[in-house]
């Protein structure tokens, strides 16, 4: 559906107009449906944003929960309520999001996050291929339809989009790289503490 919408916009708007537009879908709707088209697309876009925010609120705290459960963050982040809600992780991610929004650099943050998210996808698809080659006998409760061809196609697409994002906004890519470099020693320190704690538990 996403690809079809983009193809439709490319069909309606010339490339120079598309490049200069801040809301391509609304501009395309204005040409196709002169009366009410912009309002319709705006409402649909807002509903899409709500679904994206909902998915992010469901996903992000659970990442923090898993990190806490594995010993790479405070154990309190792994706690859940009686209904299964990770309240500590939800509160931490919500507070962090509020600080980032109030910083006034929302567009900058999105640009940096886009580079990191694409790198995350590249890492995940690469790991899928490597794991299935190195560990072919592991149980596979989830099937990768069309593997390895579908995975390779998506991986190639992610790599190309990632390179394009870096070429388009090199400052954001540079800052994302600095964040990764800064996180590396922190991760190494936490992993070392985790190994020491586990060794101490075994000794006891």
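Sequence proposed for the structure above (204 residues):
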């Amino acid at each position: 559906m996403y690809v079809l919408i983009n193809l439709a916009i490319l069909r309606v708007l010339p490339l120079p107009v598309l490049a200069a537009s801040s809301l391509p879908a609304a501009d395309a709707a204005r040409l196709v449906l002169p009366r009410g088209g912009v309002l319709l697309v705006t409402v649909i876009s807002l509903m899409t944003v709500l679904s994206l925010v909902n998915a992010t609120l469901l996903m992000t705290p659970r990442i923090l929960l898993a990190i806490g459960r594995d010993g790479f963050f405070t154990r309190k982040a792994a706690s859940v309520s009686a209904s299964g809600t990770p309240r500590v992780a939800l509160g931490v991610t919500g507070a962090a999001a509020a600080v980032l929004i109030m910083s006034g650099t929302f567009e900058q943050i999105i640009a940096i996050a886009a580079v990191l998210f694409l790198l995350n996808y590249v890492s995940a698809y690469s790991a899928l291929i490597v794991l299935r080659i190195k560990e072919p006998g592991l149980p596979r409760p989830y099937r990768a339809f069309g593997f390895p061809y579908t995975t390779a196609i998506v991986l190639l697409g992610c790599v190309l989009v990632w390179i394009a994002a870096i070429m388009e906004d090199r400052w954001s890519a540079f800052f994302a790289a600095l964040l990764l470099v800064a996180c590396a020693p922190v991760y190494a320190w936490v992993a070392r503490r985790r190994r020491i704690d586990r060794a101490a538990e075994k000794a006891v």
